[in-house]
Specification:
Blueprint (H helix, E strand, L loop, with lengths): L2 H10 L7 H10 L3 E2 L9 E6 L4 E6 L9 H13 L4
Antiparallel strand pairs: 1-2, 2-3
Length: 85
């Protein structure tokens, strides 16, 4: 099992601790790229899939790097909607 497959399986368990860097890794594995936001975007992040033109938007966690539980559920729902999970 590769690291990406382990992350995918872990994400599906809706863990209480899932970091922003793990999210970037899993989205990159699905083909998403991080969009460059403007200077005033603050902590808002966007990930874009060039094949499907799908965009996932969320706020980067602060002050730590752990995603909130609702963000994990949002990511799972978005990826299921695109038939990636």
């Amino acid at each position: 099992m590769t690291k990406k497959e382990k992350l995918r399986a872990r994400l599906l368990t809706q863990p209480r601790v899932f970091t922003y860097s793990e999210l970037r890794t899993i989205l990159k594995g699905f083909g998403y790229t991080k969009l460059k936001s403007g200077k005033t975007s603050g902590s808002r992040m966007s990930f874009f899939h060039p094949g499907t033109k799908h965009i996932i938007r969320l706020h980067r966690p602060q002050p730590g790097s752990t995603l909130k539980y609702y963000q994990i559920n949002q990511i799972i729902a978005e990826l299921k909607k695109e038939d990636l999970l």
